Amino acid sequence: MENTIRVAAILACHNRKKLTVAALDALYAQELNLPVVISTYLLDDGSSDGTAEAVENRFDNATVIKADGSMFWNEGMRTAFAAALKDGADYYLWLNDDTTLYPQTIQTLIETHQNLDNQGRGESIIVGSVQDPDELTLTYGGMLKNSNWHPFHFELVTPTDRPQKCDVMNGNCVLIPSKVANKVGNMDSGYSHALGDIDYSLKAGKHGVDIWIAPGYAGTCSNNPLEGSWLDTSLPLGKRWKHMKSPKGLPPSDWIQFTKKYAGILWPVFGTMPYIRLVVSALSSKFKSKNIQQTT
Length: 296
Hints:
The protein is α/β, with parallel strands linked by helices. The protein is built from nine helices and 13 strands. The strands form two sheets. Strands 1, 2, 3, 4, 5, 6, 7, 10, 12 and 13 form a ten-stranded mixed sheet that branches. The protein has a three-stranded antiparallel sheet with strand order 9-8-11. A hairpin with an 8-residue loop joins β8 and β9. α1 packs parallel to α2 and α8 (252-262) packs across α9 (267-295). Residues 289-296 have low confidence and may be disordered.
């Protein structure tokens, strides 16, 4: 079909069949006034719950790439993105498999880019904001830098009825036009789970690409729980440190790579800061708890 808009959705998953299928159901149920054809590139990272088979049986336009469970989010998305880039599309949609889109989201994202393109701002990435499914509070989306001294302090921006520029983005719902993808390239290797979306944001900025928050909310996605993670202050230092070094925490190799790229000559300061803070925080909590016990 002439003038067909090809959208390639990029996802990575691991043992979340119900959520993954729900995310794709919402994607393929989009209400569109544009001639959009959606295809999916799903990296299934060693799921044992039948996710890959369920997706292959349910969605005709889905390409499932199977891995051994060692990729996590960034490497999984990077692998799926590479396959989509090889096939080509007009737009590439990053979509978390726990994100459920609202019915008109794809239409809104594309129209937002088309309007910017008409203004000479076509080299832009469009970010969809998502909210908690129960409390409807903002959970992920576009962020602005909110510190004059710390290069990696960002604050989420609440969507309005108009597009808003931002500095970096979460990767839950992101529309990347082909001209931008060809210019910026794929996500960088070296990150296991997190940081890949922030890295891509900053890399895009270095290429002169703007990031815009689309009007309204794009869908729902719950916040990742702090309980049981390295940010859980109720855990002892040893457990927090173990979680921090794990692929889903803040592995030193990932963080040092990131700070070397974007913190300039002060990268050793910012590269060690989270780990020093963790130790100080844990010791401070232990000291306070000990003092409370002695006074009771």
